[in-house]
Amino acid sequence: MSGGLSVRKLKKIYSTNGVDLTVVSDVDLDVAPGEFFTMLGPSGCGKTTTLRMIAGLETVSEGSVVIAGKDATRTPARLRNIGMVFQSYALFPHLSIYENVAYGLRVRRLPENEIGRKVDECLDLLALTPLAQRLPGQLSGGQQQRVSIARALVYRPPVLLLDEPLANLDAKLRVQMRDEIHRVQRSLGIMVLYVTHDQEEAMAVSDRIAIFDRGRVAQIGAPEEIYDRPGSLFVADFIGKANFLPVCNDGAGTGQCLLHCGTALHPGRVVPLAPHERDTLPGGADGLLMVRPERLAPSDDGPLRGHVERVQHLGSLSRSFVSVEGVDNEVIVDLPRNAQRLLKEGENCRLGFRSADITLFGGAV
Amino acid sequence: MSRALLFFRGRDPVALLVGFFAILVAAAFLAYPLINGLVLAFLRSGDSLSLGNLTLANFERFFISTSYKRALFNSILTSGGATLLAAALGVPLAFAVARVEIAWRPLVLALSVIPLIAPPFIGAYAWVMILGNNGILTQLMVNYLGIRPPPIYGPWGVSIALALSYLPYLFLVVQGAIATGDPMVEEAARMTGASNARILRTITLPLAAPAIAAGMLIVFVKALGDFGVPSILGGEMQVLPTLIYYQIHGFFNLNAGAAIAIVNVMLTVAGLGLLAFVNRKNVSTLTGSSRGAVRTNTLAARVVANGFIWIVLFLALLPQLMVALYSFSLRWGDTLFPSSYGFDNYRDVWVEAFTTMGNSVILSGATTLICIIFGAVMAYATVRGRVAAKWAVDLTIMLPFVLPGLVVGVAYLAAFNDRPLLLTGTATILVLAYFTRRVAFVFRSASAAVVQIDPKIEEASSVCGASWLHTMRRIVIPLLAPGLLAAAILVFATLIGEISATVLLYSANWKPISIAIYERVLGNELARASALGTICNVATLVLIVAASRLAGRSMSEMFK
């Protein structure tokens, strides 16, 4: 992977007063040129620290960072030739928009006419041309973030790093800017390394996502893969909405497992297991079955018996909260508003799902 | 990897070098003279430093000598009196300005800082002109009413002059606290049915208490360290700073001077301790309301507030007005205003004004330059965490801030009185002493300015490919410049009138204008002193106005 970015066994230890605190460990990442790669996780999971080590703004305690085939582990930030966009924009408040964007080119001592051409091109790409002579303080948050992107792109770095670039924007602008970043990335074909805690944002724009959990990578994969086949309970819970149902392998080697919920015995309580899931949940073992809310539907012979507590109308879908016997949390059911059968508040119901739509986790109950 | 090595790893060598140099300078010119002065206080005059020579003899006099005991008592009396008087005038003034709808608020705030700009001792001799033995008001009262007002010389006069000089500090602190207080807290109290008087007593005043205490402490500390006012208005009365001065000028007893200085500092520290005690229950406002305090708009409140504000302002500005008027007067007998005017006083002092003002400008200018460079570097290094011992830097820089000018004077006189560090009588020693007294000011405003710069901005610059020096030159320094320039002018302007450190350290070759004025006052040439004083005041005022314009801040904000 010559033009890409690769991170091996990356580790960050902070020591304060002799106490070592490991915030990042054993992080391995490979990002291909032109790929939109996202590091996603809750706050304090080490994703930003990893990004800052790649940028050269934090020292690397152990491991290596290779950018475009060159080992950059000990290279100072200014010599890594990368672009970076900060959450707080970090624009130079005393310089005009034009000069902010030109900054990296002036540092590189390019001839004036070339600077002018490249800056104009970049301002045009981000629709900033009319604002060129303004100062950052006179711009809105979204405009400032566009300037910040232009400043990072103007010298055409092999990789663009974005650290929570949308966190300071309001909800509507966030979606707009997200699409803008996606558009620019696609049109330039540049490699992007993106950090966010917002899973919807990550799902929307990423080619691949690395989920971070307590300083480690929990799973790497395409968005749909992570959503449909989460590798761990943490990932399943962090990405999207999930219902967890306690289950037990019936132990008879029949390739079936029993739902713990509900007292009345009926055939629906038995869920057939796919072959690979028999390894996850060996005979007699307890585990959890995860099913996404939109994969549940009312069904007369469904395995879950419940009572519809509340129904919310969320635009295109109707979200029902159903209390199910034997399950602690209310089960969430998302149905399209135009579904043939919707749930009504206060009714008793049976819920079913397809065995292809479930993920089993062993061990924890 | 060991911790020492970890410290150096990933740090810019330039940043380390800068921090190291800063500590070196702080040690040589801040720590050394102060520690040296401290040691000196425990030695007899003429003794060299050895363990056996250490003695408490210099402090003994506070128990046996009447003049020492008197001076200590008078210091506490006049400073305490000035503090109470300043609070009695300043707290209602602050409420009037902050909570009543008054006309010309910016003008009131700007006028209120003028007493801070003008050196207090100039105000002090104005009181002599007004209420001295031959003062205008004294003569008017004797001639027309047949009564002689009580003499201005002594504890009363000193307390009043000090109170009016340092009142603005208290006023600004309290006014700021009341004006920015969250009105919703009081609205909540009102919703529970509390009366206005009850709200004032149970909510507003307790919330303003820390600011009032802080303001009173500033007045107390400043009054304790003031030399000019008691030396002019004290008459026979001695206070600690004047006692230091006479011990050194009269007997050249540095050791005794140092011992008195330590007692003086201990009083200051006691004041600080008292403040910490008062503020031990740290009640800070919990919310960040963007609304300012609600201002009363009733006619009665406005009449009372305006009347009070202008009376206090008139009293506080009266000395400066007197000086200005006196400088143009040729004859001022027993009338309310001079009977003839002219420029004679200015003509008489013109040459002296020119040379001494020149000296002042050179001394203050050099100090300002050093203060700015050093203060900014130290501030940057400490805020950005590139200095190992932050607490040491803080201490050495902030300590002289609470030290009276005469104490710094004594410390410098003692530290640089011998070869190879023989600096007494030179311009250098004045510059260094000024530096010690003012660097904290630059350090504070530079620190505040550095904190304002998001470290991510510097990171953005280095990710763009810029070196540390390039980032400093193109990003950090331009961003700090306005604040630094304002601080520079303020340092410069307040040094022009500095007297309490100067009086011990100046030499005939380098006589600044403040000393020239002081000498004229002592020689009872009040009209000529007024001409010099007016030149000094106007120059200072112009500079401060320029500084506030440059910084885009109002004049009253500059002194917070």
Shape of chain B: globular
Task: Name the helix and strand elements of chain B from N-terminus to C-terminus, one letter apiece.
Answer: HHHHHHHHHHHHHHHEEHHHHHHHHHH
Subunit organisation of the chains: heterodimer
Mean of all residue-level pLDDT scores of chain A: 87
Query: If classified by CATH, what would the architecture of chain B be?
Result: Orthogonal Bundle
Strands of chain A, count:
20
Run of helices and strands of chain A: EEEHEEEHHHEHEHEEHHEEEHEEEEEEE
Number of domains of chain A: 2
H/I helix tally of chain B:
25
Please report the first level of CATH classification, the CATH class of chain B: Mainly Alpha
Kindly provide the name of the CATH class of the largest domain in chain A: Alpha Beta
Task: Give the biggest sheet of chain B.
Answer: 2 strands, antiparallel
CATH-defined topology of chain B: MetI-like fold
Please, could you describe this protein's structure?
- The complex is a heterodimer of chains A (365) and B (560).
- Helix content of chain A is 25%, strand content 33%.
- Chain A is an alpha+beta fold and 365 residues long.
- Chain A folds into two domains: 5-236, P-loop containing nucleotide triphosphate hydrolases (Rossmann fold, 3-Layer(aba) Sandwich), CATH 3.40.50.300; 242-362, Nucleic acid-binding proteins (OB fold (Dihydrolipoamide Acetyltransferase, E2P), Beta Barrel), CATH 2.40.50.
- Chain A has a six-stranded mixed sheet, sandwiched between helices.
- In chain A, helix 2 packs parallel to helix 4 (141-153).
- Chain A is elongated, with a radius of gyration of 25 Å.
- Mean pLDDT of chain A is 87; it is low at 262-268.
- Chain B is mainly alpha-helical.
- Chain B has one domain (14-39, 64-280, 292-329, 367-558): Orthogonal Bundle (MetI-like fold).
- Chain B has 25 helices and two strands.
- Chain B has helices at residues 3-8, 13-40, 57-64, 66-99, 105-112, 114-117, 120-131, 136-145, 155-179, 183-191, 196-225, 228-233, 240-251, 254-278, 299-327, 344-383, 390-402, 405-415, 427-452, 455-463, 468-496, 502-505, 513-522, 526-551, 555-558; strands spanning 329-331, 340-341.
- In chain B, strands 1-2 form a two-stranded antiparallel sheet.
- In chain B, strand 1 (329-331) and strand 2 form a beta hairpin.
- Chain B is globular.
- The two termini of chain B are 45 Å apart.
- Mean pLDDT of chain B is 82; it is low at 1-10 and 285-289.
- The interface between A and B is medium-sized, with 31 and 21 residues.
